[in-house]
What does this fold into?
Amino acid sequence: MKNAWGVWMVALALGVFAAGCGGPEEKSSDGDTIKVGLFTSLTGDSANWGQATKEAVTLAIDEANAAGGVLGKKLELLIEDDMSTPERSKTVSEKLVNEFGVVALLGEVASGNTKMGAEVAQKAGIPLISSASTRVDLAEIGPSFNRVCYTDDFQGAACARFALDRGWKNIALLIDRKNPYAEGLADSFRAYAKRKGANIVIEQYYQRGDAEFQSQLVKIKTANPQVVFLPGYHTEVVAIIRQARSIGLDVPFLGGDGWDNPELFQNAGKAIVGCFFSDHFTPDDPRPEAQAFVKAYQAKYGRRPEAIAALGYDSALVLIDAIKRAGTTEPEALKKAIRDTEGFRGATGVISIDDKGNARKPIVMIEIQPDGAFKAIQSVEWFDPTE
It folds into this structure.
């Protein structure tokens, strides 16, 4: 706590205000700033994702302010911790909108948390941009909702196309039945794979929080698949793959962006080498926009950014670009400008927002290397997942 005053002064100097820290003077409305709200998971199960998002959004806001601000004003970022829960996401989003008067909301990674914030934004009539919530039905919330990540229907189909391109036609699915994200990915993967002639030789299920998977893995081994599609979160992926190797199930596992976590190799070790997952970004992307972000993030935080950070950065950049093009923060004009985003060159790729608020952009396929590195081996351009 002895450093709290120093942190406070730095935040003010940068035009960034962490409302979640509980400061008493959050309602600064002197008319010289444009207030943007960020709700994210600074504590709880998804804190690592939330912290990365906070860092990257802060970086984008700092850069915009250093370049002179937007519409002649500085951007003021107000940050609230949703504690990784949907209930708290609703509460803090209402606080950002109703008490602080933000012109737009940024957040979240987890789709369940984003849904709560998006419903608050929809009710208030202001825009929201999610950084990494891929669940398809979020677009049904209404014209306030937008995202800079791809959707699960595309991600699942892209994983299926990747598997088929590698010659894997006999495929097993192992699905978290309590996770809408995992079920959504599995649905699109299954549908695309079957249309293209693949055989789903077996489907097995588990629930988030389970620690024992031997029963399902033995059945999968008996079905003799060439690959196992495992569209869950990294928290269970480690135990599943370690247990698979212990019974001699040595085929590759393939997952979605829920695998993206630096602890994946640290906890799974060589058991996970040669497995694959889809992702939004690689810091090895040679495009100038990607490398400029990597350089700035490393300079500020002392490490290379993960995909979640890159998405958070792009969510802020797309909003800033929309404010500039709209020439105002009036809600309807700002929502239209976001939906009109076309060919925006972000850190994670070239982003276009469609009439449902979904981003159309490429996907990156990652292979886990013997040294634990996540190596991008293929980019899959956006395609209609129903083709």
Notes: The longest strand covers residues 33-40. The first helix runs from residue 4 to 13. Residues 147 and 358 are 6 Å apart (CA to CA). The two ends are 56 Å apart (CA to CA).
